[in-house]
Amino acid sequence: MAGCRLAGVRDNEVEDTVEESGMTEVLLAVGTRKGLFIGRRRAGTWEFDASPYFNAQAIYSVAIDTRGERPRLLAGGDSAHWGPSVFHSDDLGRTWTEPATPAVRFPQDTEASLERVWQLHPAAAEPDVVYAGTEPAALYRSEDRGETFELVRPLWEHPTRSKWVPGGGGEGLHTVLTDRRDPNAVTVAVSTAGVFRSTDGGASWEPSNSGVSAVFLPDPHPEFGQCVHKIAQDAATPDRLYLQNHWGVYRSDDTGRSWTDIGAGLPSTFGFAAAAHPTRGDTAYVFPINADADRVPAGHRCRVFRTADAGASWEPLTAGLPQEDHYGTVLRDAMCTDDADPAGVYFGNRNGEVFASADDGDSWRQLASHLPDVLCVRAAVVG
Questions:
Q1: Are 256 and 195 in contact (CB under 8 A)?
Q2: Cross-strand partners of 88
Q3: pTM for the complete prediction?
Q4: pLDDT tens track for 106-120
């Protein structure tokens, strides 16, 4: 592709041995402002498909659903001409299907129209259920692996909704978390309404923001109205959540009922992205940004920070990342982990660069450069 570099990159020898013995394939989906790029890692070598999918469409959301016999990819496209849609692929992204009627749409009585799909989330405890988060902020549920969706009306009709105020990036429901132990437990985050939880499968919702600040409001600790940027769930302790706020990094040990500040030790507590290690408990990743008025990497340095003790301390991960002044901002869904062993960690930025670690974040390789703005990154073992 002219103007883009999608490199064939070989990872370290330890990973090569693991992959060659197990025939592991990792799929990496990179949603950008102008299309979806798909990479595949086999025997330690990354290769990207020759051309992007959904050319000129902004891809804000991607899910790699590995729950069935055949993996399914879901992508939330945003065509300037045709409008937003949800596509799915059952051949690892080589071909895509769009439903004959829009998979996600607002019922006529809501008097709302869909701007985009911010999030696609395969439910942890229900094999065919997929959730979608949208702008305007709403939650949708699918029971056919993402081919059709229904509006979750109790959240749309929540008594606080009239007081929700869009953030700088719009009013989007950008995070959905489910619990592998309980299909009725659902947690969502909305910009800028905060965190809401349901324990009855979406029939009712409660704000869950106790301890999270809203520095831009007269009351800095309201019941709702926080500008939550991302939430990640601990792998070993599902009740433990990590939250990156507009200002502040927090942890909850009670599924979001209350939150504790764990930002000490970070160069800045402003940021967008948060991700958890797929198997190791107490381990999470963030990418600090200078400030809300200076949205570049903290200190102009490209650094992922990792905690291995649930936020009691943080360490910068820089091996293999650019050492010179850097200005690539990582957006809320542009960092993720896969489910390989050792775990892969990935992030993309608004410079159009994509970086990957094959060893839990200890060292990094650049996989791509000069892409359009990276909006979301997802990865999973698929073979």
A1: yes
A2: 74, 97
A3: 0.94
A4: 999 999 999 999 999
Integer angstrom CA distances of residue 323 from 15, 38, 272, 302: 25, 27, 21, 7
Q: 145 forms bridges with which residues in the sheet?
A: none
Integer CA distances (angstroms), 184 to 95, 123, 129, 198, 205, in order: 33, 10, 12, 7, 12
151-199: pLDDT as tens digits: 999 999 999 999 998 888 889 999 999 999 999 999 999 998 999 999 9
DSSP states along 331-342: -TBSEEE-S-SS
Query: What is the DSSP code string of 8-67?
Result: --B--HHHHHHHHHHT-EEEEEEEETTEEEEEEEETTEEEE-SS-BSTT-EEEEEEEE-S
Structure tokens at 144: 């056919």
Cα atoms found within 13 Å of the Cα of residue 366, Cβ hemisphere only:
17
The per-residue b/e assignment along 62-76, b for 16 or more CB within 10 angstroms, e otherwise, is: bbbbeeeeebbbbbb
Q: Using CB atoms within 10 Å of the CB of residue 3, give its burial: 0 to 12 exposed, 13 to 18 middle, 19+ buried.
A: exposed
When computed from its CA atoms, the radius of gyration of the chain, rounded to whole angstroms, is: 19
Question: Are the CB atoms for 310 and 262 separated by under 8 Å?
Answer: yes
Residue 243 is predicted with a pLDDT of 98
How far is residue 53's CA from residue 96's CA, in Å, rounded to a whole number?
A: 9
Confidence at residue 197, expressed as pLDDT on a 0 to 100 scale: 98
